[in-house]
Each structure stands twice: as structure tokens, then as C-alpha cells.
Design goal:
Two copies of one chain form a homodimer.
Chain A (H helix, E strand, L loop, with lengths): L3 H5 L13 E6 L4 H18 L11 H11 L3 E3 L6 E3 L1 H20 L3 E2 L5 E2 L1 H4 L3 H7 L4 E6 L2 E9 L4 H11 L8 E10 L14 E11 L2 H22 L5 E4 L11 E9 L4 E12 L1 H5 L3 E3 L5 E3 L1 E8 L1 H10 L16 E6 L6 H8 L2 E6 L5 E5 L3 H26 L1 E3 L3 H9 L3 E6 L3 H10 L8 E6 L20 E8 L1
Parallel strand pairs in A: 1-16, 4-8, 12-22, 19-20
Antiparallel strand pairs in A: 1-17, 2-3, 5-7, 6-7, 8-9, 9-15, 10-11, 10-21, 11-12, 12-15, 13-14, 17-18, 20-22, 21-22
Helix pairs in contact in A: 4-8
Keywords (chains A, B): Aminoacyl-tRNA synthetase, ATP-binding, Ligase, Nucleotide-binding, Protein biosynthesis
Enzyme class (chains A, B): ligase
Pfam families (chains A, B): ProRS-C_1, tRNA-synt_2b
Chain lengths: ~475, ~475
């Protein structure tokens, strides 16, 4: 169906109709004059304002993505490379997810706080592995006005080192535990590799949770509880299927004990993408920052810590998964605009009559599959609600079918290399040795980027005893997903 | 009434009871043994943990304020001067105000967005008066990792120059207007004058609204609509009385046309404080950033712009106004914890009996005036709700009485100087000349800081025709509030 709104208002983004999950037309929707008029105008509009998409998703995915987020008015490119303007459509999606997640963590008795944007160098460098992971990306403030600062000050790339000196101060006895804080904030990672809106940007918005417990059991349990919330953000809100699992030693969070994640996959680019991470930090930071407490037996003990985060990257994943050649497709649960009601005027028509009719006859066109249906006015609200639920579910089902169709099981190097060449999401038996992963990276280096482990899924297929690692030929310890990634 | 919670848990901040507006005790509240025991323990606790306040509000206001915000666990001092950690109690107050304000501006069809933290120098410097106002406080990023950036990048002190190049891009015709955006974010002003938690910090949280209209009439109307929301934040939520008015030419926003504000006053320090500002920017930024549009007659025109903001400073004003020698006093509307129910145990008591009684007998103690009342269990909920409304109103009334008692009308320099010496909020007839304000500043310079104009209240007392300016002796044009300020 041609969109009359585009024709009526040339300044509307062509992508705007993506924002509505259901377009309900009242009046003579099939009138040929009207259609012809609209078509003609729309072409004119596209030519004049360049708001249509000039490439197809399957032809040039990168260019398509960039056009969708810009023409759909989610993103505006900014005059500093790697920084992007998040426009109102983006913020409304972010706010829906934020409302859900914030309420859920409040139920878990996690409280919001706000720590400073700035970190002093001494504190930043206290945990060696951690700073090695982040140092190359840290932005430094060295001047204010015309004066040089005595000591350069870093901008947080993440807040472990910002927060934990104060955890050390606040935690004295077991009654101070657990300490469970979260903040919604911006962070800065001055990366030089390909910036991509939402997916890889120098500044982004996120929440970061930082918790401390008396026992590892409690920390372990929370890691999974948070990971489940991340799954729900992706699957229930963004309708994007994800795999829950554990990262390899090489891919885990710098300075942490182990990292769990939800991993998504983009069929068009053949790349995995880390959707959100929930880390158990163990006692490593506790040791470096001296976060000790007197336990209930009066003995000195060290806390167990977690940190976990999801960012505006979620929105990019959603666009990549659901968007089509007409632009954005948004799941109803995060769409600011769920329904557009369009009175369809045509030449010589009685406009008032049409407007009146809008309240009695309704033709609905779904944004996801463009199916049309005439809905009687009786029970309209109920029917539309059902349609919304159906669109949400069917977006997820379709995305899952496409994702699953990309999964290939590779049992040896030959199968692995072939599947990688076909941009697949590869499930392979692995010996779980760090040197072997490094070797896989080295052997797959190239223009497209090396392959790496994405995660070892919690949901493990059977692994017969004599199964060998696809890469080393040693006995396999687990099934692991591999592929190129963002 | 002594607080048993402090005695039961030595790690609770002494200020904690400030967080509850009403303490409801069940059991034998007046039992003398219990009181004695509790008193003894509380003293011990204070000595041990240093959580009590060591100074009185009237004796050393600055020290008192610092102790209240730290011991009340709203703020933790940070290892970078002028930066503070906002702890959960603070964030819960901020979130209450945010929920109110965000919903109100959404009703006005203002949409949220997020622009980058960073500004390139060329853009930052485009509006001359504006950058002159902010340049000395701008923090500059010059390095990432170990590499120098090609061009230093500024951190936003406010976002006019960040946003308006894109307003220029997005606004073409009158149908694109009004453009009304808001963002919730952090900003950085690297000030060197006395940092004070909430009141003057190098990084703070705020909302900043930026709107563009086709006509001045629309812009003028919005300035006042937003200012009214700021008044409500202060008066209805924080129970702090404010004066609405217009800033002088000397005190208006750098680069703007005129600035309106809500002004609060802190009786203890004798200083006014700018509570929030709503600026009409006129067409000055539109000219510098070329924000033009084709009006409905097809003629080229320039937009009229506003910007407006309130920050976490609001919370500091509230603490200063309501706090007492026992610590924080929070208006019920922003208190995370409104009621604490305390079973009061005593020696040889049947603990279970007391707990049972808590559900039947209730003695209430208000945090604001410590008034005690026994409330029957019948209608308890209703009665408590009434009490909360009464506390909210009476905090405002008390604050207003105290503020009003500080107002002095000064008709000549002698009266003005005397009132200033007494740390009053001075209402004086003024000729409204910039040179005269500069002269007042010069003549009142000293250890305490110079006096300046705070605002010309919209609510103007009668000004007889022959009234002369208190400072210049020229004919007075208006009544203006003067004083020292934060």
C-alpha cells in the first residue's frame, strides 16, 4: 500500500510508516485514482528529498543499514567521527526498555546511583588486566579553559575502577552486604575501528550494574538472573532471538572471573553480535581495591562481585534483524506509534464523508508482512490488540527461523572453514584451550576479520565421549558457537 | 524520640531517620528503661561511627551542609575535586522529579533525544557571547590512549552549539516547526570557585530543553509554561518557595535574548540561589547557525528559540532549606521512604506480644516537628495520608515564613548596605541600567562576595512615579531582588 502521509507531507521521512505497525485506512482504500495520485507524488517526493532507500538489504547491507537509521530518523551523523545523535524515535525505544529493566532490577532491590564521568589515572590503573583491556580506548582530559590540568583525567570507559574504591569504604561487615547498585549513564571508548551507529560508537548510553556479595553462590545466582532479563529485553521487547552462554577465557571481561552473554546473529552480514553481558568478577577487583568485610563469624573475608550492562547497541541489533527494503520494522512493544489511521481522500470525494467513514470501516495493513484485512467496527479494539500480539510474535518467529537457518554444525576444520566462507553461525565441538582459539583467529585472518568464539551455549547438545575438537583434534570439552562478529 | 533503629544497627546512618517522614512506633513507646537503653546505645554508636552531626545549622552552615549530605548518604566525596557520587537516596529524589517533569513536557509534545557529549571547537566557538560566557570552564579532551587527537575536543558545558547545526539541517519549512527537543544528560563545567555538593560541581545531571518556533509569540509563551513547571518542581515537590522573575541584562544567559528564572533563598547563608532557568534565545543563535525556514507565505524567515534547564542543584537547595540539627528533612512527595514502623522492645518484654501490638496500636512521630500522636487502627491509612499531605504543606509554609522574614525593602544605598550586612533578601527599586549593576557589584566586593541582582519579580509591587533607584538615584523602572548568591 502506498502511504498517503508521504504524499501529503513531503517533509515526512519515507521511513516514517515503519514506525506504525498497522496502518488503518478509512474510506475508499482501493480507489485507483487515489493510488495513482499517491504513487506519482511519492516518486516526486523521493526524488526531491532523497528520503527513500537507495539500496536493498541483500545487496549492500552496510549501506542499507546506514540509510535505514538515518532516513528512519533514528540517527543523525555528527561532525565528530564515531559520535551519533540519537533522535526521538530512538529515545522512545530506549525508554521502553529502560522502564522494563529498571522496574525489574528495583524488584531485585538493586538501587540506582550516579558516579562521576571522570576517573583519576591512579585508580584507573589499579587492576592490571582490566586497564590493559581498556587503555587504548580511553579518552583523556588534559585542559580546562586555557590551563593545563596538573594531572590528566580519564573519561570512564566503564565504571569498575570509578566505583570500587568506594565499595571498599562502604563495606565493613556482613550486614553491609549485598551492596547492589546500578547507573544509567554515558560511557566513552575512543575506538578507531569502523564506527557503526548503535553498534560501535565512541560514546554510548547504557546501564551498568555493580554488585558485591558475601558468597560466590549469591554472585553466581545474580549473574544468571540478570542474563535472563537481558534475554527478555531482546526476545520479548525487540523480538530478536538470542543465545545464552558463557564467553571463552580469551573473550571474557578484562579482569573478571567469567562472562556470560546473550549473543545475537545478523544473517545478512553473517556476523555474531554480543548483545549484553553479565560478568562474575570473582574476587579479583576485591583484592585490588581491598573490598573486605567481617563475616558473621567475625573473620575477615573478601567480597564476590558482579558487573553487567546492556547498551543502545540493542537498538542497532533490532534494526539489522527486522528492517526490510522499505525501511524500519519495529516490534509493537517498543514502537512509539503503533497504529496510523489514514483517511484516504480521492478526487471529487466528499472529504467529510470519508472522515465519518473512518469511524465505521476499517481496512488494516500490517507493516511486517503487508497482509491486508477488513475489520468490522465491532470488537475493533480487541481485534487490533490481537493483531499487535500476533505481529510481535511473528517478528520473533521469522527472525528465529532465519537465524536458525544460518546455524551449521562443523566437526572438523574443513567443515568449519567452509561454513565460515558461507557466513554461517558455526556450532563446533571445542577443547576449550586458549591457545587453540588464538590459533583459529590466526588461521582465519583476512579482509572480513577473523573468526572467534561467540559463546558456549548453556543449552549444550549431547557430546559423545570420543568427540574431537574441530580445530585441535584434541578431545572436545563442549559445544561452542563460532563466527565473525561485530 | 530516640531512634531504636540506630541502636539496633550501628551501620545505619544517623541521618537515616530523616528519610522517613513519620515514625510509627508500636509497643511501649514511653517505657523509661527502653528509652534509657536506647539513649545509651545511641551515644555509643555516634562515638564509634561518627555518624551524628558535629555542628549545628546555625553555628557553621557550610560544615553542617557537608555533614548532612554525606552522613545522610546522599553524597560521597570523590577523589577528583568538584565531582561527587550521587548515592541511591539522591537518585530516588531525582527520579521522582524526573518522572513529573518528563510527563509534563511530553504533554507539551516535547520529545526526548540524546546529542553527543563532545563538541568540536569550530562549532563551540560560533556564537561569540555564548562562548565567552563558557570558555574558561570548558574541559578539553586532547588524547586517546597514548595518541594525541588531531584537534582537541570539548566536553559540553551546555548543548546549544552541539544541537543547533542540526536544527539548521532539519528545519526547512514552517511545517517543520515547532521543533521541540529535550535531553536528560550530564554536563561538565570545570569551575575553580568553591565546589559544593549539588550546588556547584564540575559535572552535574540536568535536563536541557531546546525548542524552535516560527514566531516570537510562541517562544515567549513556552518560556513561561516551562518556568511554571520549574516552580512546581520546587514548590509542590521540594516544598521550597521560589520567586519567578526575569534576570538583568548582566545576569542573563550568554548569547540569549532574555532569561527568566525561579529564585530560591537560603536564610542561613543569606544567599539567593538561581533554581532553574528558562531562556528565550531570540534569533541570535538562529543567525549564527543559519536556522532558517520558508514561512507559510513562501518567504525566508529565521526561527525563534528557547532553551531551559534544571539540574541536581534542586536537591541541594531542598537540603539547605529543610534540614535541621538532626540531619535531613525530606518532603513526603520526594521521600523514598515515607514511614518507618518500629516495634519498640524493652528489657524482659514479650517480643512477640509487641510485634502483635504493632498491628493494633500505633504512635506516630512526625519528622518535621516531632509532634507525637496516637492513632487508632481504624482509618489508619486515611489518617496517615492526611498526615503526609499536612507535612508536605507545613514544610512549605514554614520555609516560606522563614524566607519572607528575610525580605527587606531598601529604598536607598544606606538601607541596602545595612540589609546586605544582615544577609537579607533585598527588594529595591532600580533604574535597570547595566552600569549601575556593575557599580553595585564593585561597591559591595568583599570576603563574602559581591551583591548582584537576582531577578525582577513578575509579581511587582506598586512603583509610585517618583520612586528613585536605590543605587543611582535615577528614576526607578522596576522592583528587583538583590543579594549575595551561590
Amino acid at each position: 500500500m502506498e502511504c498517503i502521509l508521504c504524499a501529503l507531507n513531503p517533509r515526512l521521512a519515507a521511513g516514517h510508516c515503519a514506525w506504525a505497525n498497522l496502518i488503518m485506512a478509512g474510506g475508499k482504500a482501493d480507489n485507483s485514482k487515489s493510488k495513482a495520485n499517491t504513487k506519482g507524488k511519492e516518486k516526486e517526493v523521493k526524488k526531491e528529498t532523497k528520503l527513500g532507500l537507495s539500496v536493498k538489504k541483500d545487496d549492500n547491507f552496510g549501506e542499507w543499514y546506514s540509510e535505514v537509521v538515518v532516513n528512519g530518523e533514528m540517527i543523525e551523523y555528527y561532525d565528530i567521527s564515531g559520535c551519533y545523535i540519537l533522535r526521538p524515535w530512538t529515545m522512545s525505544i530506549w525508554e521502553v526498555m529502560q522502564a522494563f529493566f529498571d522496574a525489574e532490577i528495583k524488584k531485585m532491590n538493586i538501587k540506582n546511583c550516579y558516579f562521576p564521568l571522570f576517573v583519576s589515572p591512579g585508580v584507573l590503573q589499579r587492576e592490571k588486566d582490566h586497564i590493559e583491556g581498556f587503555a587504548p580506548e580511553v579518552a583523556w582530559v588534559t585542559k580546562s579553559g586555557n590551563s593545563d590540568l596538573d594531572v590528566p583525567i580519564a573519561i570512564r570507559p566503564t565504571s569498575e575502577t570509578v566505583m570500587y574504591p568506594y565499595y571498599s569504604k562502604w563495606i565493613r561487615g556482613h550486614r553491609d552486604l549485598p551492596l547492589k547498585l546500578n547507573q544509567w549513564c554515558n560511557v566513552v571508548r575512543w575506538e578507531f575501528s569502523n564506527p557503526t551507529p548503535f553498534i560501535r560508537s565512541r560514546e554510548f548510553l547504557w546501564q551498568e550494574g555493580h554488585t558485591a556479595f558475601a558468597s560466590r553462590t549469591e554472585a553466581d545466582a545474580e549473574v544468571l538472573e540478570i542474563l535472563e532479563l537481558y534475554r527478555r529485553v531482546y526476545e520479548e521487547f525487540l523480538a530478536v532471538p538470542v543465545i545464552k552462554g558463557q564467553k571463552s577465557e580469551l573473550e571474557k571481561f578484562a579482569g573478571g572471573l567469567y562472562t556470560t552473554s546473550v549473543e545475537a546473529f545478523i544473517p545478512n552480514s553473517g556476523r555474531g553480535i554480543q548483545g549484553a553481558t553479565s560478568h562474575c568478577l570473582g574476587q579479583n577487583f576485591a583484592k585490588m581495591f581491598e573490598i573486605n568485610f567481617e563475616d558473621d563469624k567475625g573473620e575477615k573475608a573478601m567480597v564476590w562481585q558482579n558487573s553487567w550492562a546492556y547498551s543502545t547497541r540493542t537498538i542497532g541489533v533490532m534494526v539489522m534483524v527486522h528492517g526490510d527494503d522499505k525501511g524500519l520494522v519495529l516490534p509493537p512493544k517498543v514502537a512509539a506509534l503503533q497504529i496510523i489511521v489514514i483517511p484516504v481522500p480521492y478526487k471529487d470525494a466528499n472529504m467529510q464523508g470519508i472522515l465519518d467513514t473512518c469511524a465505521a470501516t476499517v481496512r488494516a495493513v500490517r507493516r511486517d508482512n503487508f497482509a491486508k484485512a477488513d475489520i468490522a467496527i465491532d470488537g475493533l479494539v480487541e481485534k487490533v490488540k490481537e493483531l499487535m500480539d500476533d505481529i510481535q510474535q511473528s517478528l520473533f518467529d521469522t527472525a528465529k527461523l532465519k537465524r536458525d537457518a544460518c546455524v551449521v554444525v562443523a566437526k572438523n576444520w574443513g567443515e568449519f572453514a567452509e561454513a565460515l566462507g558461507q557466513k554461517k553461525l558455526i556450532l563446533a565441538p571445542w577443547c576449550d584451550e586458549e591457545e587453540v582459539e588464538k590459533d583459529v583467529k590466526a588461521r582465519t585472518k583476512g579482509d572480513m576479520g577473523a573468526a572467534k568464539s561467540l559463546c558456549s551455549p548453556f543449552d549444550q547438545p549431547a557430546l559423545p565421549e570420543d568427540t574431537l575438537c574441530f580445530a585441535s583434534g584434541k578431545p572436545a570439552k563442549k559445544w561452542t558457537y563460532w563466527g565473525r562478529s561485530y
